[in-house]
TrEMBL record:
Keyword DNA-binding found: yes
Gene Ontology MF: a single term: DNA-binding transcription factor activity
Ranges where the HTH lysR-type domain occurs: 4-61
This protein's GO CC annotations: cytosol
Official protein name in the record: Transcriptional regulator
UniProt-listed InterPro entries: HTH-type_LysR_regulators (IPR050950), LysR_HTH_N (IPR000847), LysR_subst-bd (IPR005119), WH-like_DNA-bd_sf (IPR036388), WH_DNA-bd_sf (IPR036390)
């Protein structure tokens, strides 16, 4: 058994990051000689040379590189385990970061879920923010967000995730009231053959664009896409401005400039799913997932059974 402390591991990891004794010692608030001595003690205990030292620079040996990979995750697991233990004993306040897509008719349900969670775990702080599709992906990947709520068609853009169905979404065709088609009592996708389309940019959601193209293709035409927008709010604004037609959820706020026509979407690929990284072991997330499952079970009892379309 090696006699190595977590403090020594921390010293080594900081030194491996800085590769400079002066910078590393300042970061650790210890003297440079003390840090150098601790590294030497660690190397002697392990019987390994961890750093290549010369007058010009310091670099990691292959052994040092291997330990950085292993010990980085070890330190993270240790820190998380202590946080989890404190949380369970109610001596520490945890934090859960949640992100949701904009204007997809899920805010009310998420707020209801969060309210239920807060009652069960009052010591856990909840940060809830709305983002565009791209930012949600980036923040989940960087662990800035622990869980996100996005349409099913977005799941293909995520990696290493677990997901669960959260809410059904009914779609609509959105059209400006300045368009003569808005005077029709009923409007179908076939009526959009000669209409310009406005869509979310491919940078935000390439899967969303493909979904629209496939829907039009099934009805015998390719959409004439004339404008790309960065977010859902800009998309709806473009429709109101008469730039083109689009698909959206049927619960968006409407006014005299826009009309919605119900659109039957048999694929249900706009339903909202809760998504998290499979390797996210935060105990706060585990608690939230438990409440999420309870919430879904309640929804099943109160209405239509939720589709089982989990992915990982």
């Amino acid at each position: 058994m090696y006699k190595v402390s977590f403090q020594q591991i921390n010293y080594f990891l900081v030194m491996a990051e800085k590769l400079n004794f002066t910078e590393a010692s300042k970061s650790l608030y210890i003297s440079q000689p003390a840090l150098s001595k601790q590294i030497q003690i660690l190397e002697k205990e392990l019987g390994l040379s961890l750093f290549i030292r010369n007058n010009q620079s310091i670099s990691l040996t292959p052994s040092g590189q291997a330990l950085v990979k292993k010990w980085s995750s070890l330190e993270e697991m240790f820190t998380q385990s202590v946080s989890d233990a404190k949380l369970l004993s109610h001596t520490s306040t945890g934090t859960l970061n949640i992100g949701s897509t904009e204007t997809f008719d899920c805010e009310e349900s998420i707020l209801e879920l969060v309210e239920t969670f807060r009652k069960a775990y009052p010591n856990i702080n909840i940060n809830l923010e709305l983002y565009g599709f791209k930012e949600l992906r980036e923040k989940l990947n960087s662990k800035a967000l622990d869980i996100v709520f996005v349409p099913y068609f977005e799941l293909a853009a995520y990696k290493d995730i677990t997901s669960i169905h959260f809410k059904e979404v009914e779609l609509a065709i959105a059209i400006s009231t300045s368009n003569p088609l808005s005077k029709l009592d009923n409007l179908t996708i076939k009526d959009l053959l000669d209409e310009p389309f406005v869509v979310i940019s491919s940078d935000e959601s390439s899967n969303g664009i493909e979904r629209i193209k496939e829907a039009c293709k099934l009805n015998g035409f390719s959409p004439n896409i004339v404008k790309y927008t960065k977010n859902m709010n800009s998309l709806i604004l473009a429709v109101k401005n008469g730039d083109g037609v689009t698909f959206c959820n049927n619960k968006i706020p409407v006014d005299k400039k826009i009309r919605l026509y119900n659109y039957s979407n048999p694929s249900r690929d706009s339903d909202i799913f809760a998504v998290w990284k499979s390797n996210n072991l935060k105990i706060e997330l585990n608690f939230f997932k438990d409440e999420l499952l309870k919430f879904n079970n309640k929804e099943e009892l109160n209405g239509t059974p939720l589709p089982q379309r989990n992915s990982s």
